[in-house]
Amino acid sequence: MKNFDLKNRTKKELESLIKIMKGISAALILSITLLFILSIYGIVLKENKAIFIALLVIALASVAILPLQLKTIKTVKDELNNRE
Predict the structure, then answer these.
(1) Which of 4, 47, 55, 81 is deepest in the core (most CB within 10 A)?
(2) Of 53, 58, 75, 66, nearest to 27 (Cα)?
(3) Alpha carbon separation from 13 to 19, 47, 58, 62 (Å, rounded)
């Protein structure tokens, strides 16, 4: 993971970074959920299943990003707590 050099950032910048990362995580969770719903719908009800299987693979691959996002948020929160 890339080091964000958190020690040189101000408290306000770190709080802003947390808000941005939470927004990105929420958008990612929403898009993954929609991909899962769409792919399951397509696999169950449509004849051409290849496209929907590919969408399911994309959704599963995107899930791997979430732990990295959550770890980054935790790291920034820990840095904020260390400063207090």
Answers:
(1) 55
(2) 66
(3) 10, 50, 33, 27
- Would you say residue 84 lies in a domain? no
Average pLDDT, the chain: 91
- Whether 61 is covered by a domain: the verdict is yes
- Name the domain count of the chain: 1
Residue 1 has pLDDT above 90, yes or no: no
The CA–CA distances, whole Å, from 11 to 4, 5, 25, 84 equal 14, 13, 21, 10
- Digit-coded pLDDT (tens) for 35-47: 999 999 999 998 8
The parent domain of residue 16 ranges over 11-31+39-78
In a domain, 46, yes or no: yes
